[in-house]
Specification:
Elements: E1 3-6, E2 16-19, H1 22-43, H2 50-57, H3 62-69, H4 75-91, H5 104-108, E3 112-113, E4 124-128, H6 139-160, E5 165-169, H7 177-189, E6 197-201, H8 205-214, E7 226-229, H9 231-237, H10 256-261, H11 265-271, H12 276-291
Parallel strand pairs: 4-5, 5-6, 6-7
Antiparallel strand pairs: 1-2, 3-4
Helix pairs in contact: 1-4, 3-4, 6-7
């Protein structure tokens, strides 16, 4: 469609023709993808969780727009990305994850925190790289915590109609490249990898070298979204009420009620038949991480 024709009656009963704008084209793409999604759900109702269908039916364009933006505004690739997003989360029980599915000690490390908003209203996803992921037996829990926070920030994005912003706290970074790649693969392959910005806070020279590897875990179009900031710059972007406790802010990983509801590691290990040796490794690691905040 090269032109949009708006017939407007004037005093001379003439038609006014205006050129289609970029905004018009984007809105058309959003509506086209919405329509294709409705047809997809109608044809394959058992492939989609009712909660995802409800989100699609809600009067929010942001979710649809993010899938288009991350797929070069092409409808078919965007639809395939939505299929992956919905099927992965449904098949892996991601929509049913609760804060109580993770031991309180894991939450308290503050490794992932999808809480708060920047001054422009963008939902924030903090990743604290000084927290070591620990032994490989910890990795399933780390991924579960990441997914829980992905769902939380996804819901905030849909509610607020604003893209998320990611803030990596790079101070004293301890990076497991393999695990970080697995986590970022989930973000870039199972969710729409779109962000208002991806901020790297207080990078040292060593992490700058690591970033030359890490940046290839992101789609190239997100490279231009990467910014490098210090704490003074961060404070101009995010007020204290929306900063995590480890950045002298007021956001805690859990509320008091959540702390009382979440299992401790011992109870979690018992409920999940984790062997004593593995439990001791996990406990030793988490004790060390939490002592750093004391």
């Amino acid at each position: 469609m090269a032109l949009l024709v708006n017939a407007v009656l004037t005093e001379n009963v003439n038609e006014v023709i205006r050129t289609e704008t970029d905004e018009d084209r984007l809105k058309f793409k959003i509506e086209e993808l919405k329509q294709v999604c409705f047809e997809e759900v109608k044809a394959h109702p058992n492939d989609y969780d009712p909660r995802d269908v409800k989100a699609l039916e809600a009067d929010s364009e942001t979710g649809i727009m993010l899938f288009l933006e991350s797929n070069d505004w092409k409808v078919e690739p965007a639809l395939e990305a939505i299929r992956r997003h919905c099927s992965y989360r449904r098949e892996n029980g991601v929509l049913d994850l609760k804060v109580t599915d993770i031991p309180v000690e894991v939450h308290q490390t503050g490794l992932f925190m999808a809480k708060g908003f920047d001054k422009a209203g963008h939902p924030l996803f903090y990743i604290r790289l000084s927290v070591s992921p620990g032994p490989k037996e910890m990795h399933p829990l780390i991924i579960k915590q990441f997914l829980l926070n992905c769902e939380s920030v996804r819901n905030m994005v849909l509610e607020k109609n604003k893209k998320l912003a990611i803030i990596f706290d790079c101070r004293q970074a301890q990076v497991d490249i393999g695990l970080l790649r697995e986590i970022l693969d989930i973000y870039t392959q199972k969710y729409p990898p779109a962000a208002e910005y991806i901020a790297f806070l207080d990078m040292n020279f060593g992490f700058k070298m690591i970033l030359q590897i890490i940046k290839y875990f992101f789609p190239k179009y997100l490279w231009k979204k990467m910014i490098f900031i210090d704490q003074e710059a961060l404070k101009t972007m995010v007020d204290q009420d929306n900063l995590p406790y480890y950045l002298d802010g007021k956001i805690e990983p859990l509320s008091k009620s959540e702390i009382s509801e979440c299992p401790n590691l011992a109870d979690y290990a018992k409920a999940n038949n984790i062997k004593d040796k593995v439990y001791e490794k996990m406990k030793s690691h988490l004790d060390k991480q939490l002592s750093n905040d004391s």
